[in-house]
Amino acid sequence: MKILQRYFLSQILRSVLFVLFAFLGLFAFFDLIGELSSVGRGGYQLQHVLIYILLGFPGYIYELMPFAVLIGTIYALAMFASNSEYTIMRVSSLSTLDACWMLAKVGLVFLVFTFLVGEVITPVSARVATEFRNNLIGRAVGDGFRTGMWSKDTIRKDGIDGPVIGSRFMNVKKMQPDGTLEQIRLYEFNDNLELTKTVSAKNARYLGNHEWQLNEVVESHLTAANTKNKKFPDSAPSLNTKKLDSLIMVSDITPDILSVISVDANKMSAYELAIYNQHLVENKQDATSYQMAFWKKIIYPFSVFVMMALALPFAYLHFRSGGVSLKIFSGIMIGVAFILINNLFSHVGLLNTWPPFLTAVIPSALFFLSAVIALWWVERH
């Protein structure tokens, strides 16, 4: 069994790597075509495009891994069947359960690799790629939003751990790659949702420990109206404005949280998604889409087991039942169907407010059930 295990691993690994590199080359070509229009903007040249594309490879590897595992495993098993190798293995006492166990061990290797790429490499490479491109083009985070970036924050009485006494809405026009904010506007409300203060600043620098230094500040305090006197102007609220060179603001918002707004959730780690989910929940904002992205991030690496289970029935189909090319085509269609249904459930679950965990796990569960039924059918026939 150990010899067979190593043989399975070597053949499947070779096929998966071939498929993965083929798709990476295809996606790199599409990215190159898409980036050619940006060549010449600022200091962005062709060699920088190639670096930017290479930095995007970990993200593509993470997204394509289950698909590559499916196609590569189908090809390896189809070759076993066409050369009658799998028939000899079965005659030599290899049961279906043994084959499943060997594929599960191979799948564990791909699962660990996919998890490491998705949790460790992709978040870093995606952030570096974005900063690298923005620095050369001269584009800051937030340029793609008409009114800049918006975020909700809580106001606490005594520092970051004090009781909540209000809420704050932050509007940032741009965020530079080094985390510096430009053209900031703050709107602060009390517990009764009454506007109490507005602040505008030219720029802001993060000092650490949840503290921001606002520079060139204009601060306006709004005093509630005198409800006892109904005559104007005594009944009108008063506004006191003052200018400050700098102001220290304590906030739950950090540069990492702001950068999440412009980053694709699929390229964030589960840890980053969990932190941002907590921030949204604490500020009483809808976190359903990010909760769904979190659970998809947790479950997605396990889909390699589902893909291998779907590939195993192809080993029972002999060459006369269909050529290797037909089996590969069938595998591609299965992989495309899995991606489409997975994305469809994400949107449908979001629209119908389904539990994020169930929305993320149902597509994999359905395809795994299909694999079990297909394996039962081919073994019976």
Automatic annotation (TrEMBL):
The keyword Membrane applies. One of its GO terms (biological process) is transmembrane transport. Its main location: membrane. It is found in: Cell membrane. Keywords: Cell membrane, Membrane, Transmembrane, Transmembrane helix. It comes from the Bacteria. The chain crosses the membrane at residues 12-30, 50-78, 99-118, 298-317, 324-345, 357-378. It is a multi-pass membrane protein. Coiled coil: none annotated. InterPro entries: LptG, LptG/LptF_permease. This is Permease, YjgP/YjgQ family. It comes from Oxalobacter formigenes OXCC13.
